[in-house]
Amino acid sequence: MSSAARKRLVTALLLAPAAVWLLLFLVLPFVAIVVFSLGERAPAGGYQPALTLAQYANLPARAAAFWNTLVLAPAGALACLLIAYPVAYYLAIKVLPQRRLLLVALIVIPFWTSLLIRTYAWMYILGGRGIPAFLELVGLPDVRLINTPGAVLLGIVYGYLPLMILPIYISLERLDRRLLEASADLGATPFSTFFSVTLRLSLPGMMTGFSLVLILLLGEYLIPTLLGGGKVFFIGNALVDLFLQSRNWPFGSAIAVALVGIAVVLLLAANRITARLSGARQVDLL
């Protein structure tokens, strides 16, 4: 066997476990969902074989779930980005190296607690005995915070902010400081240096964090359920209802396929925007 053939064989053997894992737990389940989406609901619920696009034609029936998801998910990801960037910039640029590990650990520590428990805490804070009770004491009665889109957005930012901070921090921490010094030596102001050098070179980290958070939010179920109180439905809530309660598997599968298509389109758009703004030929977000 030649040297090139041996290298190809070793590469194939190293990639085989990951390829089998992806095939069994990603590709095949998605193929099954696509097949289900082309079927019909059985009389007793579940799946009945057929070949029809009626489920996709019925997607507007869940327009409210799509609307809430496509508005609040990008808004939540953008809010996380606007809050995360100054934090990541401070950690990577302003903080001494010996203190960074401690501060990064403080950001990650909330992940040690279940998201369910943290969301329940926000239910109390935003509920009648939390902030509204305090506002009533200062003369602002009947302020409603829980079961609103604002409460869902707040829960999204709180729950997913660390996932946005870390990619941006890594991109800024790896930034070559000599570029900043060269920009200053050439007469650029700190403001100009930030926008022309720092922000531009950190765009891949920003879009990676944005894409990661956005993908997770597209399928979010817990936060809208607890902080939205059944009044702010996401696509994840619709899927749970269709698969577990209504047992309309074909319609739920059609919604799931549409959700995957939306996620792919958003990722491709983010990849192209990042590549164009950063001047790079390719940014690996997929």
What is the element layout, followed by pairings?
Layout: H1 3-37, H2 54-57, H3 63-94, H4 97-108, H5 115-126, H6 131-137, H7 149-173, H8 177-185, H9 190-201, H10 203-218, H11 222-228, H12 235-245, H13 249-278
Helix pairs in contact: 1-13, 3-7, 3-10, 3-12, 5-11, 7-10, 7-11, 8-9, 10-13, 12-13
How would you describe this structure in keywords?
286 residues, globular, mainly alpha, disordered C terminus, single chain, MetI-like fold
Query: Approximately how much beta-strand content do the residues carry?
Result: under 5%
Radius of gyration: 23 Å
> Please, how many domains?
1
The assigned structural class equals mainly alpha
Name the average pLDDT: 89
Text of the CATH class: Mainly Alpha
- CATH architecture designation: Orthogonal Bundle
**Major beta-sheet overview:** none
Give the overall shape, derived from the CA principal axes.
globular
Low-confidence stretches: 280-286
Tell me the helix content. over 70%
Number of H- or I-type helical stretches: 13
CATH topology: MetI-like fold
Distance between the termini: 35 Å
Provide the succession of SSEs. Answer: HHHHHHHHHHHHH
Query: Any idea what the CATH superfamily is called?
Result: MetI-like
How many beta-strand runs? Answer: 0
Commentary on this structure:
The chain contains 13 helices and no strands. By secondary structure, the protein is mainly α. α3 runs antiparallel to α10, α8 runs antiparallel to α9 and α10 packs antiparallel against α13. The protein is globular and about 75 Å long. It has one domain: Orthogonal Bundle (MetI-like fold).
